[in-house]
Amino acid sequence: MSQNAQWASKIGFILASAGSAIGIGAIWKLPYVAGTSGGGAFFLLFILFTAVIGLPLLMGEFVLGRHTQKEAIRAYQAVAPNSGWSITGYIGVITCFILLSFYSVVGGWIIQYVVSSMTGQLFHVTDYAAHFEKTIANPYVAVGSQLLFMLITILVVSRGIQNGIEAANKYLMPGLFVLFIAIIFRSLTLPHAMEGVSFFLKPDFSKLTSRSILDAMGQSFFSLSVGVSVMLTYSSYLTKEQNLPKSAVSISIMNISISLLAGLAIFPAVFSMGFKPEAGPGLLFIVLPSIFSQLPFGVVFQVLFLALFLFATLTSAFSMLEIIVAALAKGEQTKRKKISWSAGLIIFLVGIPAALSFGVLGDVKIAGKIIFDAEDFLVSNILMPLGALLISIFVPLKMKKEVLIQEFSYGSSNVKRWFALWLLALRYIAPILIIIVFLDVLNII
């Protein structure tokens, strides 16, 4: 393998990048927040903010990654040597390390539920809330399933870009869409399903508050995996033939579409069975199993739905481990397998306290939060917005304008007219809005 690995195809890059962006949060969080914050009105805001924040940031990472052909840390060093800007890359690597350490815990829960669904065990549960609490509190189940999730992630990433990440996403991402269509079809055929569709999509501007507007703003860049240099690393494996603006738009549209499909799959079933749509995270492990247990062929659709969540979780995990492996390998692909296993197993070990924070370590608190929630707060509310802010400043400030135009224009002759708009959004609009979100999550405004 060459020193700098490359994607085998354009579609492989797009599917892998979309897979990185489409995780658990994009599937359950955005539909839930939209449903309780104005429905279609919230979605319109989310699309707007994606265009003026998420998309410019995504393009910023793309042009930096492809131009330097280097991973997160060395990319900043190549553009701004002998400066402190490489801290942005380090923030991305550290963020992904912490994120994957507790994200793998949730992935382990999903694996456990997939297995118990396939064996029929989950269908014999009478109290799903109590069952979920018991499952995640069991130290052997929590740590064992977390380890299994990390082993799957390590196996794929250790095989490289083409044979590992790209090959896996070529199956997982189309599978994700197919499963969604099957589940949506079943949900829409349930009694009173249209009430759920109306709850999710009907614009209600009276429900829009300053809180929901800020949520839409924050979700617009969190949902695209920007701010942690994952997309920078993925784009470093691109050739000059790839049309970056077209790829960025395609990924953004896929991400919005998945959230839309998730809402159409979840809320018709929730309303049909008379459950509260405000369940949030509990939808996945408590409400939905309760719904499927009452449906004809429910066990089949429950397995499909959990498999869908597992696919989405894995594709995101691949990208998190990849940025760490790429940073440590420094372009030497012969070291990939060893580094993948070493880094992956260390991440698993570091994640054990988070896995145990719902049971034996439940009394251990950091700033009043259990270990899992404290790590989640650190990543979501501090490190990710900080990384996004630094990227929005670095690219227009430190990269030469002619280089930006060149990277923006490769692969197409019709995108130069959009360059000025992109640079305007990245240089001025995105930083201001990110700072507003940052101050909000820190309760400063």
UniProtKB/TrEMBL annotation:
Domain of life per record: Bacteria
Bilayer topology: Multi-pass membrane protein
Any Pfam family hit: SNF
Keyword Cell cycle applies: no
CDD domains documented for this protein: SLC6sbd_Tyt1-Like (cd10336)
InterPro entries found in the cross-reference section: Na/ntran_symport, SNS_sf, YocR/YhdH-like
Single GO cellular component term: membrane
Name assigned to this protein: Sodium-dependent transporter
Primary subcellular site in the record, as a coarse category: membrane
Keywords: Membrane, Transmembrane, Transmembrane helix, Transport
Record bears the keyword Plastid: no
Transmembrane parts of this sequence: 7-28, 40-64, 85-104, 137-157, 177-201, 213-237, 249-271, 307-329, 341-362, 377-397, 418-439
Subcellular location: Membrane
